[in-house]
Write a structure and sequence with these properties.
Layout (H helix, E strand, L loop, with lengths): L6 E5 L4 H17 L2 E8 L4 H4 L3 H26 L3 E7 L2 H11 L4 E5 L5 H4 L5 H8 L4 E4 L10 E5 L6 H14 L4 E8 L4 H20 L4 E7 L7 H11 L4 E5 L13 H9 L4 E4 L15
Parallel strand pairs: 1-2, 1-4, 2-3, 4-5, 6-7, 6-9, 7-8, 9-10
Antiparallel strand pairs: 5-10
Helix pairs in contact: 4-6, 9-10
Amino acid sequence: MIQSSNKILVPIDFSEQSLVALEQSYNIAREYQAEITLLHVIEESGMLAKFFSKQQHEDVKKNAQQELDKLALDVEKKSKFVVNTLVAKGSIYEKVAEVAELINATMIVMGTNGDDFKKKRFIGSNALRVVRESSVPVITIKGKHHRKGCKNIVLPLDLSKETREKVTKAIELSKLFGGAAIRVVSVLFTSDEFIVNRLTRQLGQVKAFLEKEEIECTAEIIKGIKGKETLAGNILEYATKVEGDLIMIMTQQEVDFTEYFIGSSAQEIIYHSTIPVLSIRPLPKKDTTLFPNPY
């Protein structure tokens, strides 16, 4: 097996959903020719942990390491990837972000059980907290069944200044997956002529740019109905309609608001999407407004 500079980090708690995420990580690892690192985090918080002796803590860690090594061996036999393992103690989301930085991970792929969005909106699950704090792109996996590879990348766009960065990353992923189509979508909840024209012009520029890159693409504006459906709901409905394999979102709606802000629409997409969601934190203070007309 050949060592690789690219590394995919997969947090494992041995639940069904984390194993589904592991299977999905093969697609990414194959295209990046990457190694896979399996990480199991033993949480030190909780009432029971306080009553464990030092030996009991060591036994828990030893058992977890044995289970992780067994899983890694199975993955290596089936997939031929180089698989590394690591057991850590502490806060799950902090350790995942810390290890991702330590190994210089290319991407994190992790399962999420989609806990009730309203209850978790402000505190967030471990998956959401990883998305919030990681500087590494994160793919969250909620659904149980996914196609192999990636044929359609769904790219929601608005009039934010990160447009160029979003499209550039989508192009990179499209080429990585051997020419996946990019389905650009914007949702409008207003009939304001100025905004409609500006968004229409932007989508036209993006579509022309993608076509110049010889990437199959479509660009569509959806008219949202206030009170009937959320922005996230419209995007998820569209992604299902076009048979999306991956939804790509930026997780900070306002980069300057706070370092770890995640907008409510991004949260809702992560929680409710059965299609894998790639969350990327935009680069700070970078004006990436519109594309010049390529013609």
